[in-house]
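@channel sequence for tomorrow's demo:
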Amino acid sequence: MTVLIAVDEPRGSALAAELAHEGVVVAAVVPARALADVAADALHGLEAERLAEALSVADTVVLQADRTTLTAGAVALCDRRGARILPLVTDAADRRLVESFGLAGSLPLEIEGWRIVDAMAVPAEPADAPAAPRHPRVIAVWGPAGAPGRTTIAIELALELARGGRHVALVDADTHAPSVALQLGLADEGPGFPAACRQAELGDLDTRELTRISTPVGRSGVDALTGINRPSRWPELSDARVHAALAACREWADYTVVDVAAPLERDEEIVSDLDGPRRNAATLAALQCADLVVAVAAADPLGVSRFLRAHSELRATIGLTPVAVVANRLRPGTLGIDARGQVRRTLERFAGIRDVWFLPTDPRSTDAAILAARPVAEVAPKSPLTLAVRRFVGEAVAPAPAAADEARRRGIRRPPRAA
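structure tokens (generated this afternoon):
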């Protein structure tokens, strides 16, 4: 059994010694990027010749897999040489990248050498389908004008959905004031959701391309597709493009959380070009694609009034799509005694909304998150806001199967608890 080790030092040499101790012939130890560089014609001379000679005799390539080392060219190069790729990964994002190439049997980077020998002895099987059934969903987070906290809730919702190993996509489809990248400290000059929309229009958007153009949010299991970096680029997010891109996200992630803008107006009655782009097309398309709409209202008199005026327009846009209403930044100062009850009674009286989930005002945690450019759940995992979002996710978005089945059997709806 002969292997080529494409792992960065010092792990590469240590792994070579472990495999040699197990009786495996090590053809060469090269940097992790070597295969990708050769495939891209970026490696020449003696190093390229040495790698080609090692590939010609190797049965298996032990590759440190990430976005820079595991490329289509590297996989094609190994296929032409008849060498099997055994990927070593460091986190869930690398594992999803490996699965997008149809490679099976990924192992942790720091695994013992004898376990790698055992894995090489097992015949490779294509990873065509996930082990467990997936139920992908698109969740749009909307709220009326006035900054009720749409982006913050979208980010925290994505983080909570990613708990338990779920793969979650966080999409910024706001064409008026995109802020996911700004709030998380992500670069917004590179590819993101606009690039996904362009690729979807050409029919070239798949799980591999989505993995390439997305940006991981720490090690949370959330991949972000950042929005437009200038509001003037809104024509790039057309209705057809957004529909196609979100359809691809359904196959890529278990849950897709989409942050959308507030306006819901259609332009057909005020423009003469009926085939031209529409400023609110991305918001309307995302809401129409959604399986669930999280409607955010600021828990104060002005925020509730704005929400009630826009709620009927939201309902006309989404039809029968379920809506989960969240009253954000709840505090007694602006509503007096029984603030929670006043909001609930007002929404039920004027909009027929009976189920409302409340998120408290938590300035200390949100300020720390903005200062660190990280989600609140990472900066303050036990803060009141994080716990309230977690409870909302468990009750309204992704309830436990046993609880949901019991409620369905009895024909009852679980009432929301106080935050």
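heads up for whoever presents: The chain has two domains: 2-121, 137-410.
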